[in-house]
Structures are given as structure tokens and as C-alpha cells.
Amino acid sequence: MKKIGLTTTVPVEVLLAAGYTPVDLNNLFIISEDYSRYIDIAERDGFPKSLCAWIKGIYGACVENDIKEIVGVMEGDCSNTKVLIEVLELRGVKVYQFSFPHSHKKEDVHKEIDKFMSIFNVSLEEVEKVRNRLNKIRELAKEIDELTYISNKASGFENHLYQVSLSDLNGNIDTFEEELTKVISKIKERKSNKKKLRLGYIGVPPMTGDIYEFVENFNAQFVYNEVQREFAFPRADKALNIYEQYYDYTYPYDTNFRIKELKKQINERKLDGIIHYTQAFCYRAVEDIVLKQKLDIPILNIEGDKLNTLDARTKLRLEAFLDMLSDLKEELR
To answer: Which intervals of the chain form a coiled coil (predicted)?
Structure first.
């Protein structure tokens, strides 16, 4: 199967039906042992230092791994994607465009997905067949989520890792399904490890993966990973078709639509506080203003840049925030 790079989650069912192996360039970038090399490649090719490290990492991962075709999301994700794909096209990469319409109207979402299917010459029946297959794997991801926030057996990092991997299924549906099945079996054997503080992680998946382990030092655990969970499409089984599934996907649409699901999860998971992660030089950082106004829960905004580990200042801020949450919880007893 031919590889095709993704700048973010797209209707992967269409690509699989067309015989492609999807590769999420974000995952390819961040799991690399020498991830900073991808950023260096982009900067050597002229990308400015004052640009989101994710965009530079995606570019470097695409070039270094000889990805010849990609899907670039023009609406509903990073505003820098438009210029990214222009540069990749200059390098001979074939780019297919997809958009999550800002209007968030059902008919517009329907039209975009139909256009996407037409580009790859696949039928709705073929796509739905793949979707039904993927929904079985999404149920496994949902089980890991429940083992996190209900059973308190899966760690926050495991919750993050296996849900974020649903964007491209690690390049192999069958192998990924087997891996999830084995992981779930092992997690179920553990004893419950309930922490005092129940945290939510919202915003783009972090460059700083050590945040999950760090908070556990303060008797806290992430029991909700917002965007990672959306990548796993936890409500796909309730959608009648692919159009409904991607209409109900909160990440690419307006903040108010996203907030409805956030409020539901805050209550259901009994969260004590939220860490809102944003990336340096990203427009999504401004969303923090809206979120803090509309969510009735303590929120700490932290910002990442090029480092894949937490810096000393961020650790101090996290520690102070967790201490405050702990004190608040004691007062409410």
C-alpha cells in the first residue's frame, strides 16, 4: 500500500478504502528519538524560528521520510498549513486538500467528504465498510479510556498514547488492533491506582510527553485527554454514517461546539482542574480566554515550544496549580 502523510486527523476511512497507508506526520515527528532534527531541517530550508515547532516538525518528517503524497487540512486546523503545503509542493510532494468547514453545517460537511471520496475514487459503500471495521478498534480505545477514568488502572499517558494513535492506526489496522487487545488485557490485571486529583488535559497533544508522569508525583492523574479522545471518535458508533461522524468531531469546529462536550466530560469524570496546553506561535492560544470564561473549573494554561520535556518554569507553575487544587479539595470536604 502507498503511504500518504496527514497534517492532522482526516476521514482516514476514505484513504484506507482507496488502498493507502495513512501516516500521521505529527506522530512521526514527535515519537522520533531525534525529533529536533526535523525542526532543524525546516529551519535550514528557510522556515522562521518564530513559527510553530509542530509545523516545522511535520515538514521535516515529510521530507526526511520521503513521503511523496500528503493530505493537507485547509480549514479547521492550523492556519499555517496553507503555506506548509505550498512549500511541500515546491519540493515535488503531491498534495490533496481537505477542509472541515467553518460553517459547521451538515450539508457543507457532507459536500467536503463527497469531494474527498471523489478525489480518491471510492464509493460511500466502500468507505462505510472501512468505517465499520475501524469502529471495532475505536471501541478498544474507548475501553482504555474507561480503564483510565472509571477503573483508575490505565495511566494518563497510556490514555493519551493509544487514543492519539487512532489518527493513523500506527500504519496497520490489524497489528494495532492486536496491540490494543494485549494492552487492555494487561491493564485489567492491575490494581486500581486512584489519585487524589483528577485532571483534564485539553488543547493539542503535547510536545512535552513527560507532563503525564510529572503530575503523578503530586497525587494527581489525567483522566481526560480532550483532543486525543476526539481523534479516537468515541461517538462514532452512534453516527449513522461517515458524514455524521465527522460533523460530530469537536476539534476542528468553533469553540462553543467544543465546549458542550467539555462540560459534559468535566461533570462525568468529576474533574478537579484542567491543564490547557497550547503551542508557541499558535492562534489556538487565544482560545484560552474563551475557555476560562465559559468553563466553571480551575484552568492552567501552559505553553510548549521546541522542547519535548517540561522546563523548570512550567514545572513550578504546575506544582503551584496542583497544590492549589489540593487545598481547594480539602476545603470542600
So the answer is: 124-186
